Structures are given as C-alpha cells and as structure tokens.
Amino acid sequence: MAAPILELAGVHSAYGRIEALKGISLSVKQGEIVTIIGANGAGKSTTLMTICGIVPATAGEVRYDGAIISGLNPDLLPPRGLCQVPEGRRIFPRLTVEENLNMGAFFRKDQDQIARDMEYAFTLFPVLRERRRQHGGTLSGGEQQMLAIARALMSKPRLLLLDEPSLGLAPLIVKRIFEIVHKINQQDGVTILLVEQNANLALQLATRGYVMETGKIVLEDSSANLLKNPEIRKAYLGE
Amino acid sequence: MTRGSRKIWLYYGLGMAWFLALLWPLLGIREDGLAFAQTFEVWLKVAMGVAACLGLWQANQNGYLDFAAKPLGRAKSAASRAAGRVPVGIWLALLGAFALSYPLWNGRYGQDVAISVLVYICLGLGLNIVVGLCGLLDLGYIAFYGVGAYTYALLSVNFGISFWLCLPVAALLAAAAGCIIGYPTLRMRGDYLAIVTLGFGEIVRIILNNWMDLTNGPNGILGIKAPAVWVPSFAAGLSFETFYLKSLDTLYYVILGITVLTIVAVHRLNFSRVGRAWEAIREDETAAELMGVNTFLLKLLAYAMGAVFGGLAGAFFAARMRFVSPESFTFIESAMVLAMVVLGGMGSIPGVVLGALALVALPEVFREFELYRMLAFGGAMTLMMLFRPKGLWPAKRFGQRSEESE
Asked: For chains A and B, what is the number of CB pairs under 8 angstroms?
C-alpha cells in the first residue's frame, strides 16, 4: 500500500448557515476501496461534493495526489484523474448514450484513445453498446447507473468517487454493479471511495470503512472488523 | 351514433357556446350600442368550419374515407421515402436557388416580409444558442438587438462609418453586453434568471429612451446610412463609385448573406465540443461540472455568442429602416423571438427557421381577417403547441430521440 492519494484534514462545509460537515478527516491509499457508511443525512454525499469542490469547504483542507485541491474549480479535477459518479446517477437524459460517454472524456483530446476507452466501456457494460444511439433518459435505472459509471471511467480516473450506486436498484443489478466496481479496482487499479447506505454490501467490497453520523466520522476500521462490530451490526446491518 | 362520437359533439357544442360567450364582448359592444349580427356571422363561420373538420375526422375514424385515405397515405409514405433518398445537398441547392431568386418574382411587399423573416431567423438562431442549447431562459434577448441597432445608428450618424465596418463592432458590443448581463446572473437558474434577463431587457430599453444626449430619446435617430458597396465604373478610366443599397431587393441579399453566415456558424457551434458542453449544462449543470466542463465560462460564452447574432441582426435592422427608436425593442419582441424558438423546436436550426417563418408570415396571411388577426394567430399558436409540443421540427442529433425508440 502506497502513500495516500486522498487526504481530508478537518474539513468543514456548509449549506448556507447550516453546517453539514463538522471536521472530517479521512485518507484513501492508492489502490484501495474505501467506503463511507452512515444513515440518511449523515453528510456522506456532502463529503464527496466537498472533495469535488461543488460544495466549498469552509475550513480544513483536501489533499489529492500531494496537492491541496480545496478551493479549486470543480472542472479542474477530472483532468487530474479525480472523477465522481454522483448520487442519483445524473446522466444527461436527452443526450444519447454515446454522447454521454463522450462528455466523460470532455477534457481529453486524444480521439483514438477515447474511441478505445469507449470500446472498453462497452465491454464492461455490453448493454450500453446495444443502446448506444438511445437517449440516456430512456434507459432503465440499472442501465443509467452503468452509464454513469462508464461515463466517469471515460475520464480515465485514478480515484473514483462513487455515490450510492445501489440507490433504487434491484438486488441482482446491484450485485452486478458491485462486481464491476471490484473489477475496475482490481484490473485497472482505480482507487475507489464508495459512499453507501447498503452497509453490508459496501463492507464486503471495501477493505476499510468509515462510519459517519451527523457530519462527523465516528468510527474507522477495517471492513472485517466493522462487519463484526456489534454496534454497527445493530445500527446499519439490521440486527 | 356511438357514445364516443356523441361525447365529441357534446364537447363541440359546449366549446362553441363558450366561444360565442367570448366572442360577443369582443365584437358586439360598440360605441353606438350593442350589435349581434356580425358576431353571429363570424361565429357561424367558425362553428361550421370546425363542424366540417370534426365530421371529416369522424368519417376517417370510422373508415368511410378509406377509399381516399389509403391511397393518399401510400402516396405520402412513398413521397417521404423518395425525399429521404435525395441527398441533403440537393435540398440545400433547391432551397438556395429559391432564396436567391425570391426577389425576382416577388414585389415590394413580398420582399419586405421576407426581410423581416430573415431578421427574425437571425434573432431566433441567436436566442436558440442561449435557450435551446444551453438551457438558460432569456426574456430580454431583444436588448442585444437594440445594442446592435444603436451601435450602427450612432456610428453611422456621428462618424459616418461604413455598415460593413460597423457590423463586427455591433457584434462585439452586443457580445460585451451579453457578458455584462451574463456575469452577475450565472449563479441563478430557471425562473430567477428569467426575471433578471427580463429586467435587463427593460433597462436597456429605458436607457435608450431616456439618454437624450446620446440616443435622442423616444424621437429616435434619423438619417442612418444604408449599406454601401463600391461599384467599379469605367466612364473615365477605372474608378469606384459608392452605391448605396437602398432598394429592398439589394437589402434582401445583404440580410440573406448575414442569415446564411448565422446558420453556418450556429450549425458549426451546435456540433462542436462547445455545443455538446452546452447541451450537457442544459441537461444537468452539476454533472457537467463533475465531468470537467467549466460551466461558468461556457455559460458566459453562450450569452456572448447568442448576443453576437442579435447584434448583427440589429445592425442590419438599423441600416434597413435608416431609423431606430426604443419602441422597436420592447418586451413583446423578446417574447416573439422566444416563441419562434419554442414553436419551431428548441435546439433545432430548421425548427427555428420554420418558427420564424410561421410567426412572421402567419400574421401576414391573416391580414385579411383584419380585426381577428391576432385572435386567429393566437388560436393557431395554441393548436400548434397542442399537437406538436416539441416544435414544428424538433431537434434531432445523430441517433434516436427518445420518442422514436418507443
């Protein structure tokens, strides 16, 4: 395990006057899958949005790849290899699947490599190849999630932030998506920070986990330990 | 009669009664008392026309018209297949030939209407960038038209600068105005943005109205020069004479040139990286930002590019009228241009062209109805939106639209 690729130190952020993050510190090492679990409104998605600069950090700092990125414009991050699959998919509904994928490679100019990457995305998600000329909005929920992940992969990320990929999907589809996330991590060496409400699945996939409650991190441990922790089992695993 | 058809005729009766109740106060109340005859005459015509349409529709539904409808339908699909086989180039050539020869077989009136249509096409295409591609609702678009028009008017009257030099200057100043309005409003979305742009449009009009020293206020600016060209003359050796393009047919060719330039430019923008980024911003701004799109810069660019075409059209407007006054840049003009974009199909170039054609030409067609012109116009617009909510010619990029895949 190498040096941390992402580090948050005492990060605060707020929506207007309501503080959503109250001093988050976490780190993700190169090649890891790390998960953040927690209840609704704990600040998991806000953490990802703050890392990407969509919600500005009011205090603390975000370090990515050795450089401070808090305060940078969000559009500067994908070229550095940091990309997010936002909550609720947020694909472009009236663009075709192909156009959606092309948007993922928006900042890139190497057309040949982009074509190869699109081909790779189609091998990861064959259903997208069938639907390549269809509008994003006409896809099913699971297909849209696949499109959102494929779109983010088109930016050739080194660190991928995944926000609730299981949201509103059938268990079978969720399983397939998690398998692909695992594959992306193992084969392509993409580091993954995964936010999930489905704690059981997330902890099985990840190597380490953070537990969030009301804007703070309350627990940090390896996934195996978290899965064994009686409090976690009671609070998040439904026992 | 089936139950379904009885219901239709019941609604027809109710609708016509309601129409009569609306129509009578419009036509029946006069200075010299109340009148009924004219109201009934108009009402009867409309009622009979609608009844005839309904009857035909019902007959078609029940299959009484199959003997005519089936061969017609076959002919129609065959024609559209044949049309699809003809390459786009030939259609463009035909269209070009039509546009080029238009002044030859049309009088002053026809040329005048055509010039208006072309001006509105430029405006519609400019607004289409902002509204159709980037998804920013702009209710004050006509302000850029005004900036363009006054730029040429002032430069021509005060400094005698030629139209062709002023054209890029007008475009540049309009783009600057676009950035000025764009910069503070970019963090707003939807309704709020619409209100702010509405306010901006009014501010520009009121400035034009009240800045007496510069714009001569509501009296407007007179004596603007028409566009000039140098024509070689061989009377005494080779010399160039200045020839002012004052006649309508020459002006028609000037605006035709500007329109073609606009169409080509908007087409190129539409299918470029920038165009796709605009569409992504329209679809989901946050997601676009996460994909590395600099939304701030691109939205500003959308405003500026939209304003450029408004400014070009404005400069031409001033040169053609040779008079400008703030009255030409009221909110209703903004609304008309917006209606063209929506009616034609947001984000679609042929759609906007058709929309401009419909909204400028329809009131001309309805001129015979005189007083009811706007009524007929409003009715036509309502019907179009009911039956073609995506516009006359919806935007169609490479690939299928969602409606088609179902």
From this structure: 93
Find chain B residues with C-beta within 8 A of A98's C-beta.
Answer: 399
H helices of B102-232, where? 108-128, 142-159, 163-185, 190-210, 212-215
Q: Is B402 part of any domain?
A: no
A90, B287: Cβ pair inside 8 Å? Answer: yes
Nearest CA to B356 out of B371, B383, B338 is that of B338
Q: Which amino acid is at B323?
A: F
Whole-model pTM above 0.80? yes
Euclidean distance between CA atoms B126 and B137, whole angstroms: 13
Within 105-134 of A, beta carbons closer than 8 Å to B belong to 106-107, 132-134
Range of the structural domain that residue B214 is part of: 92-397
C-alpha distance from residue B389 to each of A203, B348, B380 (Å)? 48, 14, 13
CA-closest candidate to residue A99, choices B130, B401, B345, B131 = B401
Strand bridging mode A216-222 / A208-213: antiparallel
Reported as a single tens digit per residue, the pLDDT across A141-194 is: 999 999 999 999 999 999 999 999 998 899 999 999 999 999 999 999 999 999
Indicate yes or no: CB of A90 within 8 angstroms of CB of B286: yes
* Domain carrying residue A118: 4-236
Q: Residue B404: inside a domain, yes or no?
A: no
Q: Which two tokens stand for residue B229?
A: 């060209």
Beta carbons within 10 angstroms of residue A44's beta carbon: 23
With bands split at pLDDT 50, 70 and 90, how would you rate the model's confidence at B399? very low
The domain that holds A124 is classified in CATH as 3.40.50.300
- Could you give the CA distance from residue A222 to residue A210 in angstroms, rounded to a whole number? 9
Tell me the residue ranges of DSSP E strands in B202-298: 221-222, 228-233, 239-244
Q: Do B292 and A77 touch (CB under 8 A)?
A: yes
Angular region, A71: left φ>0, alpha ψ -120 to 50, beta rest: left
Chain A nearest C-alpha distance from B189 (Å): 16
Q: What is the DSSP string of B77-107?
A: HHHHHHHHHS-HHHHHHHHHHHHHHGGGG--
Is-contact B241 B230, C-beta < 8 A? yes
CB B342 within 8 A of CB B94: no
Contact with chain A for residue B293, Cβ under 8 A: yes
Residues 6+ apart with CB under 8 A from B181: B140, B143, B196, B197, B200, B303
How many separate domains does chain A show? 1
Phi, psi of B232 (to 5 degrees): -65, 140
Q: How far is CA B379 from the centre of its chain?
A: 18
Q: B329 and B228 in one domain?
A: yes
Number of domains in chain B: 2
Specify the residue for token string 């992402």. Answer: A6
Q: What is the ipTM of this complex?
A: 0.91
pLDDT band at residue B1 under the 50/70/90 scheme: low
Q: Identify the domain boundary among B85, B114, B133.
A: B85
